[in-house]
Design brief:
By secondary structure, this protein is mostly helical. It is about 80% helix and about 0% strand. The two termini are about 20 Å apart.
Length: about 290
């Protein structure tokens, strides 16, 4: 088994990233159930606050002593994380899960395109882009998307790009502790906004089980796994692999929320999966920073 991991070192971070993405989509379906009680911003705040407690207990980030420059990177990473969560949930109020994820994916796709250097990388990016476009309801029989939802999803995509870029820089030095510190920063930014909007409803015991599930599935587990993966994969590979997210979002929407897909959208899922598999199969092995003990 040990020799297998030595021969295929990229398999472990790829598997970690896949689990992280699946967990996130499952958490998103649970989070939509919180919207009637606390709204989208309230759901994001509960997710960040509870995930912070979980990650602090696991990673104990107070043991690290980041430099001022590293701390600035962690703060940007955390703000991007908090805003990404909030904008994404705001988009889910008016858009199906698969469409929101597809629009949000413009951020990591842009990161992948910017980091590409070889012709084969553009083949996988083209497949991912075609799948992304096909997931959007662009046909004549499609209902128009809510402009506010589209705007929020694209804003989440921008934050997602910043999350990748600054998370990789910060995670290279402090690893999992970065996820805990970043989530704490995100909670500090978003929780006061939610408290001003919904007040004491954030503390309702009735929503605590669902909120804990969202925090675990959408933040604590996937952020830890993503931090592990992003410090062990090249930026272009990480970015293109994230193209699996729209497919997982569409599948989660179909299974848990009853959002039906057209044949074209199913073809888009295949295109995105091929792009992800192709990127993983042709990725170069390159030196990656190690996490501290």
């Amino acid at each position: 088994m040990r020799s297998w991991f030595k021969s295929y070192p990229v398999a472990v971070p790829i598997a970690s990233l896949t689990v992280a993405m699946a967990s996130f989509q499952l958490g998103a379906t649970v989070a939509k159930g919180l919207f009637p009680a606390v709204g989208a911003v309230g759901a994001a705040a509960l997710r960040l606050a509870l995930a912070t407690l979980m990650l602090l207990a696991v990673w104990r980030p107070w043991r690290v002593r980041p430099s001022l420059r590293e701390l600035r990177t962690i703060v940007i990473y955390g703000v991007a994380m908090g805003c990404m969560n909030t904008f994404f949930y705001l988009s889910l109020r008016t858009l199906p899960l698969g469409i929101s994820v597809a629009l949000e994916f413009t951020g990591p796709l842009a990161v992948a395109m910017a980091a590409s250097r070889r012709p084969v990388d553009f083949v996988w990016i083209a497949l991912a882009a075609l799948g992304l476009l096909a997931l959007l309801p662009l046909g004549l029989d499609s209902k128009p998307l809510a402009p506010a939802g589209v705007g929020f999803a694209l804003a989440a995509g921008l934050c997602w790009a910043l999350y990748i870029l600054f998370g990789q820089k910060a995670g290279a030095v402090h690893g999992g502790q970065t996820a805990a510190l970043g989530t704490l920063v995100g909670a500090i930014v978003i929780v006061p906004i939610a408290a001003a909007q919904v007040g004491a409803r954030l503390l309702s015991p009735a929503i605590l089980p669902a909120a804990l599930g969202v925090a675990l599935l959408s933040s604590a587990l996937p952020y830890s796994l993503e931090m592990f993966a992003m410090t062990r994969l090249p930026t272009r590979t990480f970015g293109v692999l994230m193209s699996l997210d729209p497919a997982l979002g569409a599948l989660a929407g179909l299974y848990f929320l009853g959002e039906r897909l057209t044949p074209i959208q199913w073809a888009a899922i295949v295109s995105i999966i091929l792009a992800s598999a192709g990127s993983a199969a042709t990725s170069r092995t390159s030196p990656r920073p190690s996490l501290p003990d």
